[in-house]
Amino acid sequence: MRRKAALVLLALAVFCAALSPLLRWYAFPRLAKIPPNQYQDMVLEAHDATLLDYGTLRARKVPKVTIVQTLRGDVAASERIERTAGRDVVVWDGLSYVQGPDGEMVSKIPERYIFDAHTQEPVHATGEMVDGDPVRREGIEFKWPFLTEKRDYEYFDAQARVTAPIHYQGTQDFRGVEVYYFEQTIPWTKVPFPKEMPVEGITPETVAETGTTRWYTTVRRFWVEPLTGAPVYGEEIHKEELRGGTLLGGREKVTAFSGHVKMREDYIRHTVDLVKSNRTLVLLMTSYLPWGLLTLGVLLISLSLWLEARGRGTGAPAPGRTAEPEPLTA
């Protein structure tokens, strides 16, 4: 009986030991993915910012500029692209809406971001765009990969339509969560005017006729939780200028926007709580269950060997004694 129990325990031990690496290295990469129907919004603010008054074309100090960013998953588009891409795809329709202290629109830039649901790598398909202009993204945007590494990544800048390195700067603690800090600097770059301008009757084409151009630079900072790859906090030191042309009345340049853009406090708290919850799920798949199964396998093997040893010890004759022969019968 003990030998049968030992064999059963040994079989269970082998099963647990084999399941441990399979769960971590096979199941997790296939189960961890961004849902195609995800919706999220984020509010950022720049206090004591500089903003262009389009009525006078003069820069003025304002108490606050608000940026509302939304990301909405397009499930139908994801399924359509998946049929030709041969992998799980997420399509995010994003909108960055900037409004001044009076609540009026300053700029509104939509974009469509198509990426692999597991790795967050861009998937190039029809519809990939920023403000109506077709783009071909390289690198990540919005989210880092699951199990983010301590290294530099390529990050796509939607304003300049370019990809540039975002540098790993170290590990920090952000409100009780261990995070990786990344920073990217986009130097002064000529960028297109938004398709929708804040003044009625003015279009990018009419501005271009005056010879005035738009320039932009930013220092982008993210604090990323490495297991989920989700930023728990982000901010930008953002500057825009209009340069040259007859629109400025002989001036060389004028500040269109300058401010230190930060996430609003209530959104920081919500994001940290959400990331902590998702972090537990990732830990379950990458650490708790694999190590738990491996430990259980070792315990079961030990118990199996112990039962086998006891079974053999019980059936053996005591030292110094010989087993009596069984009587023969005719």
Features:
330 residues, alpha+beta, twelve-stranded antiparallel beta sheet, 4 helices, 39% strand
* Mean of all residue-level pLDDT scores: 89
Q: Which blocks of ≥5 consecutive residues have pLDDT under 50?
A: none
What's the β-strand tally? Answer: 12
What fraction of the residues are assigned to beta strands by DSSP? 35-45%
How would you classify the quaternary structure? single chain
Gyration radius over CA: 31 Å
Count of helices? 4
Order of helices and strands: HEEHEEEEEEEHEEEH
What fraction, in percent, of the residue positions are helical? 25-40%
Strand order of the largest sheet: 6-5-4-3-2-1-12-11-10-9-8-7
Q: How many structural domains does the protein architecture include?
A: 2
The biggest sheet amounts to: 12 strands, antiparallel
Distance between the termini: 32 Å
Overall geometric form = elongated
- Helix/strand-derived category reads alpha+beta
Your description of this structure?
This protein has helices at 2-31, 75-85, 204-209, 265-315; strands at 39-53, 58-73, 89-99, 105-116, 129-130, 133-134, 153-157, 162-174, 177-191, 213-225, 230-243, 253-263. Strands 6-5-4-3-2-1-12-11-10-9-8-7 form a twelve-stranded antiparallel beta sheet. 30% of the residues lie in helices and 39% in strands. The chain has four helices and twelve strands. The chain is α+β, with helices and mostly antiparallel strands and 330 residues long. Strand 7 and strand 8 (162-174) form a beta hairpin. It has two domains: 2-22 and 285-314; 32-263.
